Amino acid sequence: MDKGTFHLNGRCVEFEPGQSILDAAADSGVEIPTLCYLKGATPTGACRICVVEVTGARSLIAACSTPVTDDMEVWTDTERVHRARKLNIELLLASGNHNCFSCESNGNCRLQDLAYSYGITDIPFTITPQPHPTEADNPFIIRDFSRCVLCGRCVQACNEVVVNRAISHGYRGGKSKIVAGTDQSYFDSDCVFCGQCVEVCPVGALVENKSRFKGRQWELEKVRTTCPYCGVGCQMWLHVDKKGKIVKVTAVEDGAPNKGRLCVKGRFAYDFIYSEDRLTAPLIKENGEFREASWDEALNLVAGKFSELKEKYGPDSIAGVSCARSINEDSYQMQKLFRSVIGTNNIDHCART
Ligand code: SF4
Ligand code: SF4
Ligand code: FES
């Protein structure tokens, strides 16, 4: 289909058929602020931060959920637009407990950024008391409803991105809440603790339990790596503190193959690397007890046992299963060892998620 044209802040620019005002403006270099918009999910138009003026329209229009049409006249930077956005930010700030100093998301919060960019110094409304207590009964995710701005991004991510369908919008008016199942705790619901809701929450309403108080965003170094768990190869960021310790893992938003998603193991099970139970030397079992051995002794023992078995029962009496955490080169060498040295095709890989 041919491109169309519309007017953006007085300039004539092109758009792709079906594009939203938000995306068409971004393609033309005009950034419209957002809060609830989640790339790749159906826009909900919940927060009204992205409002713009459209000539001829009676009210302001949400840019994220409105398609552009030919010859539409859009204004993103007018006094009326700024007044409306500022009011919406003030109302969101008044809807909960936004004392940033004690919030885990301080320095990494969309609402805080918006409040700063619109020069908000105080909240001209009465702060609404939060009726729902904080939930912290599981080891992974803390749900602080007093900081929730009901943007719905977590619901979109759960239902449309990872398709677990564990959470939805519940109640009405001042009691509105994001609920798991029939308003259960995450622990008692169908939640699988993939943490995608934490990944997309733009404020401090959903935070990772283990990384709480372990470092502000600006103090942590981000290191990109590949998840060590299975053969999918998800791309992740390790958030590393000043002492070189990993305190959090998040997904690389645009990285293939996971495109911003992680499973419970990839996101939360990173601290095995600090376990004191990790083996640091080979162990040989003798008379029912393990004893530490050198690598040479251990490898000679295994090679000797394999040779004995091969001689006695033939090469197909031996099988190998390589580790899903291994890199390609190690897996290649493993199959070479079995096929060329031992002489069997009994070789597989435990590539499970
Ligand atoms: S959610 Fe954002 S605005 Fe609210 S307290 Fe936390 S950092 Fe501040
Ligand atoms: S928990 Fe976070 S993502 Fe979910 S609705 Fe509240 S603020 Fe939005
Ligand atoms: S970003 Fe458009 S309504 Fe929230």
Model description:
The chain is an alpha+beta fold and 353 residues long. Among the domains are: 4-77, Ubiquitin-like (UB roll) (Roll); 218-274, ADC-like domains (N-terminal domain of TfIIb); 283-349, no CATH class. The chain is 24% helix and 18% strand. It has eight helices and 16 strands. The protein has helices at 21-27, 79-94, 110-117, 153-161, 196-200, 264-268, 295-313, 328-342; strands spanning 4-8, 11-15, 51-54, 61-62, 73-75, 141-143, 167-170, 177-180, 206-208, 221-226, 235-240, 246-251, 283-286, 289-292, 320-322, 347-349. The mean pLDDT is 95. The structure holds iron/sulfur cluster (SF4) (2 copies) and FE2/S2 (inorganic) cluster. The site of one iron/sulfur cluster has 13 residues, from helix 4. One iron/sulfur cluster (SF4) binds next to helix 4.
Strand coverage percent: 15-25%
Which fold does the CATH topology of the domain at 4-77 refer to? Answer: Ubiquitin-like (UB roll)
Bound heterogens, unique = iron/sulfur cluster, FE2/S2 (inorganic) cluster
Mean pLDDT: 95
N-to-C span:
41 Å
Number of strands: 16
Q: Helical region count?
A: 8
Query: What is the CATH C-level name of the domain at 4-77?
Result: Alpha Beta
Strand order of the largest sheet: 2-1-5-3-4
Structural class: alpha+beta
Q: What portion of residues is helical?
A: 10-25%
What is the 3D form? elongated
Major sheet attributes: 5 strands, mixed
Q: SSE order in H/E notation?
A: EEHEEEHHEHEEHEEEEHEEHEHE
